[in-house]
Amino acid sequence: MPIYQSSTFVQPSATEFQEYDYTRSGNPTRSALEKLVAGMEGAHAAFAFTSGMAALSCMTRLVKAGDEIICNADIYGGMYRLLTKVATRQGITVKFVQIWNLEEVKKAMTSKTKIVHIESPSNPLMMVTDIRALSKIVHERGALLTVDNTILTPLLMKPLELGADVVVHSATKFFGGHADVMSGFVCCKTEELSKQIYFHQNAEGTGLAPFDCWLVLRGIKTMAVRIERGMSNTVEVAKFLAAQPIVKKAVRYDLQMSQSKGAGVLLSFETGNVELSQRIVSALKIFKITVSFGGCSSVVEMPSVLSHASIPKDEQAGIPCKPPSRSR
């Protein structure tokens, strides 16, 4: 696919317009990427954004002032910041619930609940939600189920087929795959949702630039190989950690394997001791300390002080899924 590095396009006449006129509204390179990702997720349409957070932000445009969003208690720190510091200023009520406990979801939902948002597996605790069962609960109450599928990608799980209405990705991770481009996707199940997301993408100018689209297209070519090899390496690391007496908590993937083709490339573990976890992370040689993942390198972090640091420590302590000794 060529890189259409153009901001504007020549029109055939003073009264005729072709498909593309201005790159904010559409670009052939971006269209090629969006069509490919829509096919991968089984979506009506997909939309490419300048980052995963831009994609998540656009997703929140599906609700209005007075509406309510229920979100996983264990969630990426950037999404927590978006919901608590931005969405609430727009008159949207936000609740954080341990969504993997479906009874908690039933109790939390009200007539104002319009979106239930999850990560599965969640970040960083890797808690798994039964998406099929959750979708029935959410839809019975007239709300939308949105799923952040960044960790597994459509190669391992397709949430739309499990009952989700919208799927979001931070494509900076596995889609890009080389830690050299930022991007995100919103994938919609229906035409009506697609129209709403496109309107806001165009109105707010958050569409991904042509060259960045090309970089993501390049990354997709090796995505399957990278994830396959990454999972095999992760299994070996998990076996090693499981045999260590200092590892206090591991995660079971029985439910995950019932709704996906694999458990993914990420894992997390607890030692129960913050200082011990810090020493382990700092002593690693092959694994480099970064706040992100999904590239070609082996990386590690302590989310409580890096990727999830935007969640205040007193609030982290109040959420069972935010142990400070957790490493990812």
TrEMBL record:
InterPro entries for the chain: Cys/Met-Metab_PyrdxlP-dep_enz, PyrdxlP-dep_Trfase, PyrdxlP-dep_Trfase_major, PyrdxlP-dep_Trfase_small
Top-level taxon in the UniProt lineage: Eukaryota
Keyword Lyase listed: yes
Cofactor(s) in the UniProt record: pyridoxal 5'-phosphate
UniProt name for this protein: Cystathionine gamma-lyase
N6-(pyridoxal phosphate)lysine PTM positions: 173
Species name: Guillardia theta (strain CCMP2712) (Cryptophyte)
SUPFAM superfamilies to which the protein is assigned, alphabetical: PLP-dependent transferases
